[in-house]
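Fig. S4 source data, part A: sequence.
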Amino acid sequence: MWIRSQDRLSLGDYKEVYIIDSSIMGVTGAADDTKLGDYETPEMALEVLGGIEKRLVNHMRMRGDFLFLLEMPTLEEVRNKDKEENSNEYITYRMDGLFMESCYRLQA
């Protein structure tokens, strides 16, 4: 996914985007990871990462592609592993009673 950094000095095709503390980092696979943005709190960075995910899903939907996403469970989900979640954006299944497997609906 092509992303331009918060300071507008970097533009890259990132294979992975992740959070360290309250910074969003990008991985191209070439050299060191690139800092894409700094935020006041880890929660703010998580919100931005969620926005990146939504844009990716929308882009794939426009292309007619299928997106498979496996989400690691939170500590709360591990403690309450019988609870099942659903939302309008994706269908969530339980794998082995713990991991969430999300198949995004890419059809309009």
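Fig. S4 source data, part B ends here. The chain has two domains: 1-64, 66-108.
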